[in-house]
Amino acid sequence: MKRIQILLVVALIVVLLVPACGTTKAPVVQLRVGIDSSMSPPMIDVLTKAVATWNAANPSIQVTMEVTPDYWDKIPSAFAAGTAPDIIYDTVTETTSTFAQLGMYLPLDTYIKNSNVIKPSDFFQPVWSTASWNGHTWVIPYNWSDLGVVYNTDMFDKASLSYPKDPFTWDEFLADAKALTNGTTQFGFYDDSWPETGIFPFIRSNGGAIFSANKATVIAGMDAAGQEAINFYVGLVRTDKVAPTATQLGQNTNPFVTGLVAMQVVRSWAPSTYAQTAPNLKYGVVGIPEKTTQTNYFEGAGFGINSKSKNPDAAWKFIEFLGSEPQQKAMGDQQVYYPARQATINEIQWSAPMKAFLNEAQYGSDLQLVSQFETLTSNWMYWMGNAVGGVNPINIQTDIATVDDKCNQALAKYPVH
Amino acid sequence: MDISEKLPTPMKKRKNSLLAPQRRFAYLVLIIPMAVLFTFVILPTILAGVYSFTDYNMITAPVFIGLKNFTEMFADPIFIHALRNTSIYMVVCVILQVGVGLGLAMVVTREWLKGKTFFRTTYFLPVVLSMVAVSIVLEWVFDSRVGLINLILNYVGIPAQPWLTSEKTALFTIILISVWKYSGYNVIIFTAAIQNLPKEYYEAAAVDGSNGFTEFWYITLPLIQPAILFTSITSAIGSFQAFDAVYVITNAVGGPNFSTMTLLLYLYKHAFDGMRFGYGSAVSIVMFVILMVLTMVQLRIGRANETMNA
Predict the structure, then answer these.
(1) How far apart are CA A188 and CA A142, in angstroms?
(2) Under DSSP, is residue B135 helix (H, G, I), strand (E, B) or coil?
(3) Between A and B, how many residue pairs show a Cβ–Cβ distance under 8 A?
């Protein structure tokens, strides 16, 4: 009995001492990066691979990617609840200034200053500038896109029309749209209710402004050039009837792909979806129709650090990694978005449509939207949906004043500069 | 003299001690649902009342602003749209859901009808389907270009209708979807109510030479008043909170031209898209008050009818 007791004590000592004699493992930092589930599948693939590459090379900092539906509704709530991811995906033209004002982000200036990887001058400046607000940088841009008009070359050939070329004037555009419209199964153009791919490019192509010079107020459609552009654009549905009404469109959310319309303003990532959903679609790319000015503008995305993150330094390291040349090239090689790094844009062999969209970028400048909350986009979209629906009555002059007024109420709460 | 005073003391103590563990168990069992009710209903209602007087984005601390949310709300034409749309939606839904439910229940309870179980199951099936799934499918059924309804109308020579694309018809179309989905629940309630009616009344009425209509009007309808009251109240409460169909079908816009904007969608847009939880709380308080008043009115009418019938 005594022997057994001694043996038990010895065994207990051995069990307690052996782990203490082993090598101590460094604590592993766990990071979470949140992205929007509506992001295009190739982008989700790129980020999944980036996370895998990072995790293999950095065993002490392990990253988990969370693909979240209804991301933009959930992120602020998650932040308030203290459950937001360490690294937040951000559309730099929409949410940076508001999230920064709400205190959701850490300012990145010190990290940037000390970084050998992220140099502001290395990045595409229009997108870099929208990642800043109130004198600080809050997000590191990851990618960007611009706008152009896609046109169905088969429809143009059948109508014996020559393909549009830059500068594509309003008159040429309207003439082509009329020639390509039969009023039932084919229309020349699709009037989009989203203002960024709808009315705003037309306002700017007529020399009109969206914001006042100091970006303090929204004045879209309040000047003569803007009013003329709105009348022209809405008239495509209501007067010229070269764009389908909401009734003629029905639930068709891809009128260009389904062959209902011959031309549409789209973002430069559209070709990647056409390659998946309509590989036989033959189309060309031309700039936004202009009246007085060739125009374009950009949308971008990037990553910021949650101000409540327990591991901001580790989070910065991962963001640096995403902004590095190899990762930017890997992202650009997907032929969906352009990399935020300027030099990397030139290293990629772009497809013909992507090259054509890239060529249009020279006419662009940034467009900082108010925020995702009571946005410029949604206020204008409510009105545009009805205006280009072409079914219900509108009063352009009074309606626009009301829409801009609502935008300015939101802008007063969340200024963009 | 109270009988308990006559009982010997051990008997009294035994009686009380018999009940005490049962009483404790009863209270214990009640604590859990009360805690859930308090956490998920009472407390949020109180907090909504408090936040309705603040400017609150859920991230920074709420700032007291008095009645500003309410004055802004009643001055917002979109809120007035939403209030009007929701009222129309509720009134029409209640009339149609109760009427269709009662009509189908009258058919299903006929003695001569074969396959009663089949019919009851068929009518109840839409109730158990997800409203989101139903909305996605029926959005296509009502599509103005290729929808089934317009194809049938064209076939019989009626022009295609802009069901969901015209501000004149969009709300009515969503009402139809809601009536199709929820009437089945009322069919079950009315079926149970009708089947429990005493047959002697109908036998006596038959002897007096009554027909189907007089039986329904003078016997069935008065006797199922409680069921009518119940279904009216539940239909009103349910339709007043219309959200999912409108959200899915209009992509959360409430269009065309705000013709399908409902109070709950309006609340959602401001609270979650706009991060204005104080304003959203104010809208929810207004909805709460309206529903409370409606329910009390309905109960009053129901009690008055019961008194008259008695």
Answers:
(1) 35
(2) helix
(3) 81
CATH of B69-309, picked from 3.90.79.10, 2.40.30.10, 1.10.3720.10, 3.30.540.10, is 1.10.3720.10
Counting DSSP H helices and E strands in chain A, the numbers are: 18, 14
Distances (CA, A) of A251 to A13, A163, A255, B38: 74, 29, 10, 43
- A147-297+370-413 belongs to CATH 3.40.190.10: yes
Q: Looking at CA atoms only, how far is residue A414 from chain B in angstroms? A: 11
Q: Closest chain B residue to A391 measured between Cα atoms?
A: B166
The ranges assigned to domains in chain A are 29-145+299-364, 147-297+370-413
For CA atoms A196, A199, A204, A210, the dihedral sign is negative
| CB atoms B255 and A103 under 8 Å | no
Residue A354 CB-density burial (10 A; 0-12 exposed, 13-18 middle, 19+ buried): buried
* Closest chain A residue by Cα to residue B166: A391
| Surface-to-core class of residue B305, CB atoms within 10 Å of its CB (0-12 exposed, 13-18 middle, 19+ buried) | middle
Nearest CA distance, A390 vs chain B (angstrom): 9
Contact B146, B128 (CB under 8 A): no
**Which amino acid appears at position B9 of this protein?**
T
CA–CA separation, B124 vs B199, rounded Å? 26
ipTM for the complex shown: 0.75
- Which residue from B145, B167, B253 is facing A252, i.e. has the nearest CB? B145
DSSP label at residue A254: -
B210 lies within 8 A of chain A by CB: no
B228 residue type, one letter: I
Residues of chain A positioned with their CB less than 8 A from the CB of B147 = 250
Q: In the beta sheet, which residues pair with residue A140? A: A303
CATH T-level assignment (fold) for domain A29-145+299-364 = D-Maltodextrin-Binding Protein; domain 2 (3.40.190)
| CA gyration radius, chain B | 26
Alpha-carbon span B139 to B160, nearest angstrom: 15
Q: Do A76 and B256 touch (CB under 8 A)?
A: no
The verdict on a CB contact (< 8 Å) between B140 and A374 is no
Instruction: Work out the minimum CA distance from B290 to partner chain A, whole angstroms.
Output: 26
Query: Of A80, A248, A389, which has the smallest distance from its Cβ to B256's Cβ?
Result: A389
Q: pLDDT tens string for chain B (310 positions)? A: 555 555 555 544 555 555 688 888 888 899 989 999 999 999 999 999 999 999 998 888 999 999 999 999 999 888 999 999 999 999 999 999 999 999 999 999 888 888 888 988 899 999 999 999 999 999 999 998 889 999 999 999 999 888 988 888 999 999 999 999 999 999 999 999 999 998 888 888 888 888 888 888 988 999 999 999 999 999 999 999 899 999 999 888 887 888 899 999 999 988 988 788 999 999 999 999 999 998 888 888 877 766 666 5
Q: List pLDDT tens digits, range A321-365.
A: 999 999 999 999 999 999 999 999 999 999 999 999 999 999 987
Task: Identify the pLDDT of residue B290.
Answer: 93
Residues from chain B contacting residue A392 (CB–CB below 8 Å): 166-167, 256-257, 259
3-state helix vs strand vs coil in chain A, percent to 5:
45, 15, 40
> What residues in A contact B255, CB-CB < 8 Å?
382, 385-386, 389
Note whether A138 and A319 are within 8 A (CB): no
Q: Quick one: how many helices (H) and strands (E) in chain B?
A: 16, 2
From the list A73, A104, A389, which residue is nearest B273 (CB)?
Answer: A73
Asked if B59 and A79 come within 8 Å (Cβ–Cβ), the reply is yes
Residue A271 contacts by C-beta under 8 Å, 6 or more apart in sequence?
A150, A335, A351, A353, A354, A357
